[in-house]
Design a protein that fits this description.
Blueprint: E1 3-13, E2 24-40, E3 46-50, E4 55-58, H1 67-79, E5 85-91, H2 101-116, H3 123-138, H4 144-151, E6 155-158, E7 165-168, E8 175-181, H5 188-201, H6 203-226, H7 230-245, H8 251-262, E9 267-271, E10 278-283, H9 288-297, E11 302-308
Parallel strand pairs: 3-5
Antiparallel strand pairs: 1-2, 2-5, 2-6, 3-4, 6-7, 8-10, 8-11, 9-10
The structure holds (3R)-3-hydroxy-3-methyl-5-(phosphonooxy)pentanoic acid (PMV).
The site of (3R)-3-hydroxy-3-methyl-5-(phosphonooxy)pentanoic acid has 17 residues, from helix 4 and helix 5.
Length: 309
């Protein structure tokens, strides 16, 4: 049966500023994935069975802003294909939590349809298709989610016209991240929109914050390349301070950060759009279990431990 799968992602440094042309660093999260399967349908039409959403979507009847129907239409157009199909999607990636669930589900659908029609798409082509649906989730997305997920590799991303700058970055020594979910679904479109309004009202103040974030990204990239991982925690905490200044943190995020840092994490920050979603901690391996326990006690809805390599 034609199957497509796609990883989640974590932004290590640089969210929000990346929408304004500054660089950001993101890594794939391969252990949590979205999957799609495609089979021929005996009856007329194309139906998407979205198990996690408890929804069946009839593609021909779906609203234009339905992202799952849209990615299906776009992929079929790209392949010049038209057939009756049942598409089933499921995902381990929590929705609206900064782990790239929307882009991962779209990528899984593109891959499953491409396998079904025996077409091969390059990561850049997949990424471009998925970017179209990211606009539905995000409003003005930078393109970082679809890029990391379609390439499934660590990337430094910088928005550009006509094309973004996408460069792999080096991780000289693997390190451990604790990823803690606040349990609060926070649509990226809202925080991205709020930052935009702030920037329109006080451009100089916001530009300065974006520049500060860009400087942190450069330092983090150098530290990663040199294997100076012990700097990462402090840089995360500095990046978090800038995200607070942008107004995208929240009481729940601060609460989890405080608990993790008290339990010995080297540093931490929110990851993704903010106001909910996930926080990430840089931890020494031997502290990871203690940090995990502490954030769960502080109310985290879920914790993922991952080695970034
Ligand atoms: O999809 P999320 O929540 O990981 O957020 C994406 C990161 C932002 O920089 C906030 C938005 C964007 O389009 O880059």
């Amino acid at each position: 049966m034609p199957v497509g799968s796609a990883c989640g992602k974590i932004i290590l440094f640089g969210e929000h500023a990346v929408v304004y042309g500054r660089p950001a660093l993101a890594v794939p999260l391969s252990q949590i994935r979205a999957r799609a399967t495609v089979v021929a349908r005996a009856k007329d039409g194309i139906v998407i069975h979205a198990r996690d959403l408890g929804r069946d979507i009839v593609v021909n009847d779906a609203l234009v802003e339905d992202a799952l129907a849209a990615i299906t239409r776009l992929t079929l157009e790209k392949h010049g294909a038209a057939e009756n199909l049942d598409i089933t999607v499921e995902s381990d990636i929590p929705l609206a939590s900064g782990l790239g669930s929307g882009a991962a589900i779209s990528t899984a659908i593109v891959r499953a349809l491409s396998t079904y029609f025996e077409k091969v798409l390059a990561p850049a082509e997949i990424s471009a298709l998925v970017y179209e649906t990211e606009k539905m989730y995000h409003g003005t997305p930078s393109g970082i989610d679809n890029t990391v997920i379609a390439y499934e590799q660590a990337v430094r991303f910088r928005r550009g016209t006509p094309l973004p700058e996408i460069t792999p970055f080096q991780i000289a020594r693997p390190f451990t991240l604790v990823i803690a979910n606040t349990g609060i679904a926070s649509p990226t479109k809202i925080t991205v929109g709020d930052v935009r309004r702030g920037w329109e009202q006080e451009p100089a103040r916001y530009e300065k914050i974006f520049d500060n974030i860009a400087a942190i990204v450069e330092q983090a990239q150098e530290a990663l390349a040199r294997g100076e991982n012990e700097m990462l925690g402090e840089l995360m905490t500095l990046n978090q301070r800038e995200l607070v200044a942008l107004g995208v943190s929240s009481r729940e995020i601060e609460n989890l950060l405080e608990a993790g840092l008290r339990a010995g994490a080297g540093g931490g920050k929110l990851s993704g759009g903010g106001r909910g979603g996930n926080v990430i901690f840089y931890v020494e391996e031997e502290r990871a279990e203690e940090v995990r326990r502490a954030v769960l006690e502080a109310g985290a809805a879920g914790v993922i431990l991952t080695r970034v390599v």
